[in-house]
Every structure is written in structure tokens, then in C-alpha cells.
Amino acid sequence: MMPSSLRNLRCQLGVLAVALVFATCACHSRKGDDAAPVDAKAEAIQLTAFLPSRIGAFTADGEAWTNSAPDGPTIEAHRFYSSADGRKATIELVTGDISKELATLDSEETHAFGSDTPTYWRTTTIAGHRARVVEEKPTPKKSQCLVRVGPNHVANVTIAPTPKPGGCVTIASLLDFGGIVASGGVPASPKRPR
After folding, report:
1. Confidence of residue 147 (pLDDT cuts 50, 70, 90)
2. Domain that holds residue 83
3. CA-to-CA distance for 73 and 97, rounded, in angstroms?
4. 3-state SS string over the chain?
5. Are 47 and 78 in contact (CB under 8 A)?
6. Mean pLDDT across 105-113
7. 59, 15: one domain
8. Which of 15-29, 76-90, 128-142 has the highest mean pLDDT?
9. 51 and 106: one domain?
10. Is residue 193 part of a domain?
């Protein structure tokens, strides 16, 4: 039979081992919590610097505006534009949770599932960045493109009406992609397994 002091010591060591396992798990599960919190408003304002007052034939209709949740997860900057010939453009820059946009960018589908509209998607590159362009066929009325700008940003450019296919590509190619990538942005949270 084991002396009680030895049993107590083994019990205490066992409790200590379990406590260490829980502490280690807690530290690993909190990885990233010590990172500086995201200032969503500051990130959004930083994005507005990449929405110029003039781009191609378009002039801004007013100041850029931002949209973000107080703690992230999606941070957006928008600006509306007009051209002398009456066309309208919208440019949106997004950082943070760009999973919705990435689902479209990563797709190779040419027609939206279940859609009965004459709208078709095509994949291209704009200034070296993967892009998806959506337009009506045979004659586009509106031209919209999503551009993956580095790991943390997506640009969304819409032109309406468009005189020819690819109207959004012309305007999107004028954006400062290098500056947008260099700004860093906000990485999306890793996807959690379900």
C-alpha cells in the first residue's frame, strides 16, 4: 500500500498536469487576441484615398463615403461618379471579410445558377489581378467587375450604361492597385471548421 503523502503528491502532480494542458490549450485558442484591434473607421478612411476625384472620363459626384461595423469584419469605401455623356460609375473598395466577393472571384461559372437574365460572367485579369466581369449579352447595358487586389482587398467597379463590353475594365485598370496592396488592409479571419 502507498503512503498517503505519496498518493497526495501524485494527485497534486496529476492536477498540475491537467492545469498545464488546459492553460496550453487556452493560449493556443487565443492566438491572435493579443494583436492590435482593428480600427475599422481608420481603415475605411485610408481606403478613400484610393478613390480619386477623377478617373478616366468620370468625375466624382461628391466625397467618398465609408461603411464598416465597429469591429470590422467588412470595411468598405465607396464613391459615385458621372461622365459628361451621362454615364454613371460606382467604385467600391473592400477589405476585411471579403469571403462573399472571393466566392464570385474564385468561380468559373459563366451564368448565375437559377438566373433567367441574359447576364454572363467571364474571368480575366486587370493590371495583373484576377477579375470577374459581368455583363448582359448580346448588348451590355451595365458593366461590372470584381478585382482581387492582393490578399486583403477587392475592388468593385460598375459602369452604366456602357457603350461597349468591358467598360468597367477600362476604369478599374486606372485604380492604384499597387498603393491599395501596399496599404495592407485587414486580413479576413480564418474560416472556422463547421
Report:
1. very high
2. 40-182
3. 5
4. CCCHHHHHHHHHHHHHHHHHHHHHHHHHHCCCCCCCCCCHHHHHHHHHCCCCCEECCEEECCCCEEEEECCEEEEEEEEEEEECCCCEEEEEEEEECCHHHHHHHHCCCCCCCCCCCCEEEEEEEECCEEEEEEEECCCCCCEEEEEEECCCEEEEEEEECCCCCCHHHHHHCCCCHHHHHHCCCCCCCCCCCC
5. no
6. 77
7. no
8. 76-90
9. yes
10. no
Separation of alpha carbons 84 and 79, rounded Å: 17
Judge if 21 and 112 occupy the same domain.
no
Q: How far apart are CA 34 and CA 42, in angstroms?
A: 20
- 145 pLDDT more than 50: yes
152-190 pLDDT, tens digit per residue, is 999 999 999 987 888 999 999 999 999 999 999 888 765
pTM of the model: 0.75
50 three-class SS: coil
Q: What pLDDT, on a 0 to 100 scale, did the predictor assign at position 69?
A: 67
Question: Which is nearest to 88 in space by CA: 157, 170, 138?
Answer: 157
Distance CA 6, CA 91 (A): 72
Report how far residue 99's alpha carbon sits from residue 118's, in angstroms, rounded to the nearest whole number. Answer: 26
Task: Work out the mean pLDDT of the chain and round it to a whole number.
Answer: 79
Domain check: are 102 and 27 in the same one?
A: no
Our count of domains for the chain comes to 2
Place of cell 492582393: 150
